[in-house]
Amino acid sequence: MAEDKKVKGWRDVAIGGLVEPGTSEKYNTGSWRSYRPVWHADRCIHCLQCWAFCPDGSIVAKDEKFGGFDYYHCKGCGLCAKICPVKGEKAITMVLETEAAKAEKK
Amino acid sequence: MSTTVANQKASAGKVAAQEVLGLTGNEAAAEALKQVNPDVAAVFPITPQTELMHKFAEYVANGAVDTELINVESEHSAMSATVGASAAGARAVTATSANGLALMWEIVAIASSLRLPIVMPVVNRAISGPLNIHCDHSDTMGCRDLGWIQLYSEDSQEAYDNMIQAFRIAENKSVMLPVMVTFDGFIISHTMERVEIISDDKIVRNFVGEYQPENYLLNAQHPVTYGPLDLPDWLFEHKRQEIQGFLNAPEVIKQVGREYGEISGRSYDLLEKYRMDDAEVAVVALGSTAGTAKAAVEELRAEGVKAGLVKIRCFRPFPGKEICAALAKCKAVSVMDRCISFGLEGGPVFNEIRGAAYGAGLKVPMVSHIYGIGGRDINVTQIRGVFEELKKLASGGKIEAVESYVGLRE
User: B residues 94-113 near A, CB within 8 Å?
Assistant: First the structure.
């Protein structure tokens, strides 16, 4: 992010390690991800169990339906894919991040 | 029984009326706390401090203050509760001695690193063991690097005066560091002395001012996080900020000492130079021993010996330059430590002054006298003995031992 480009010195920050709350929102934990969750619209029943179980609030719900992933924060833990109750092929599957990136380039 | 006396200086300026009371050091510190009326006090008993917070708890119970008194289950909890209260936005205090200070050690360092302006009287007592409840400085000297300002008191009067000034120093925005006010266990804490207190509590409260925290946990409009993880990418920067607090502190301590003089008639500096103008032999001391040393200096002066005393009031931040300047014309100096630094030649105060002397180009013969360990008495005759050694050094004698002991049975 732009504000991270210049690293701050000791004069530029609050004393005693004091920080504003909610700074984790600015932190790109999505960069930790090695597997990416991918959504399959045709199989999704919009039960929103993935939304309820996601430990990082990275499932976006829209009008009480599945609305996408917040890839900036999703760490790729796979809990959403695991919890998905759809029989057979699930509505969320985990894809190797490198493969997903390649697919995006194409 | 008390008598209200019109202070002689009152007519000259703004000096407030004083009341003369017979108070122990503990009572004097409790009286100061009563007048300041802090928001929170977390308390746990330990000899010889117990009486201080016992007395203050009485003020709480009688409604003389509206402090929230928290009875905790240990000193670790006492300091933790004080840190929590201070971070929440309260003016918070606690008090302890020796092993109590040792038990709160972890949180003592956290209080200073979070830059919480806590005030804590510490009644000096030997760190056990073997178990001892009497005075030496091993407790507060041991935590000299934990980031607290340390003010040492010579008597009950200074314990009272330092307590009041401590709040102004700690809460100054350019300082924001906790302050320890120390006084010698039993020798000061339990000895009744003549103490002048400012008669009107309001004058003390005005002097201290209302506490205005800048960032605090109970501020819903501007929430903050205290004490997050601070790894290699930031801790160094935060420690540098803490250093800045200490660099700013001396001027603040001196300014508060002058302003306190205006309302009380008793001004304070980082150190007190006693008969030092033409002194050839001098001792450096802190705490109650400074008073004993003054009596020795007076006797020697009456006999024509140019003796003097440098009393350190503010040990952290360490006024090395000021001490060296005061000793510049001396021919021999003894630094008297009521504390042992095991494995190091000379006591802690001695070593800091000798280190400062190197930077100041001061080449005076300097020795370390360790005394008073575990409450061992120190008297005028013994301090005169120290001056006798200094006289020999001043006339060209060689230093036989850098570290020696006063009052030790051989």
Answer: 113
Domain chopping of chain B, boundaries: 22-198+231-264, 271-406
Q: Note whether B223 contacts A9, CB cutoff 8 Å.
A: no
Q: What is the mean pLDDT of chain B?
A: 96
CATH number at residue A75: 3.30.70.20
In chain B, the residue whose alpha carbon lies closest to the alpha carbon of A16 is B114
Domain B22-198+231-264: give its CATH code: 3.40.50.970
If one counts the domains in chain A, the total is 1
The predicted model scores a pTM of 0.89
ipTM of the complex: 0.84
B window 235-254, beta carbon within 8 A of A: 235-238, 240-242, 245
Residue A6 belongs to some domain of the structure? no
Closest residue in A to B233 (Cα–Cα)? A7
Return the percentage of chain B with pLDDT > 90, whole number: 96
Q: What is the pLDDT of residues B258-314, one digit of tens each?
A: 999 999 999 999 999 999 999 999 999 999 999 999 999 999 999 999 999 999 999
Nearest CA in chain A to B174: A15
As a CATH number, domain B271-406 is 3.40.50.920
Domain with A67, as residue range(s), is 28-105
Do you find a cis peptide bond into A55, omega within 30 degrees of 0? no
- Residues of chain A contacting residue B236, judged by C-beta atoms under 8 Å apart: 10
Yes or no, beta carbons of B223 and A21 under 8 Å apart: yes
Q: Is B115 on the interface with A (CB under 8 A)?
A: yes
Instruction: Please indicate, yes or no, if residue A39 is contained in any of the structural domains.
Output: yes
Q: Number of residue pairs across A and B with CB atoms under 8 Å? A: 50
Q: Determine contact, residues B321/B360, Cβ cutoff 8 Å.
A: yes
**Residue of chain B minimizing CA distance to A7:** B233
User: Where residue A81 falls among pLDDT bands split at 50, 70, 90?
Assistant: very high
Is residue A40 included in any domain, yes or no?
Answer: yes
Contact B224 A21 (CB under 8 A): yes
Residue A20 inside a domain? The answer is no
